[in-house]
What does this fold into?
Amino acid sequence: MNDRSFRRLIKDPALFESFIVSVLLLVLSAGASLLLAWLWVWRHALARSRIPASEFVLVCGHQLEQGQPSPDYVARLKRAAELAEANPDLNLVLLGGGEPSEARAGLAWLQAHTGLDPSRVLLEEDSTDSFENLRFARDLVGTERSLALLSSRYHLGRLRIFSSQLGLDAALVPAESRLDPGLRLLGVTFQEAAYVCWFVSGLVWARLARRQHLLARLR
It folds into this structure.
């Protein structure tokens, strides 16, 4: 969890409530909830790469490094540009807010490193996390179009849960042709598993306890 996420957690009662529920479940299950979430993350990280027949590819942003796209974000942008080059009817939606916004930084990178026509790129610059990425993208392009979600392999499991919750029928597209094994991958997959555990725990709790203020955040 980065500093921005931690500050949001402390200030937001709904996020804090769901976080406490996920921690309690983790303790009561003796870690089984996190293990199951980790297996879910790996299942999607190891999925085969397929080229979707889509109108829009939603490209997930990533925290910028000194105002520039991180290596993970660059890999996503490269893959998106390849798909757009192979399909002239495909449009990209770059996701991610902040100041400067991740989406705007992504567009600048595409303009500097590819020949992609900027008119084929939409920007979603208001979101602060991956769930908001998809919710705001849904508002931008709707749910009737054929969509694909493009992100790093370690991120796809979380995106599958988020997209299902938001009613998005979207294909998952990994940025990388294969996983790059190492300690970093182990760390980010555990981090993703923690986020999955947090989200699912909060969702189940909100439904069972009829916590309307939580449910409203998850639509």
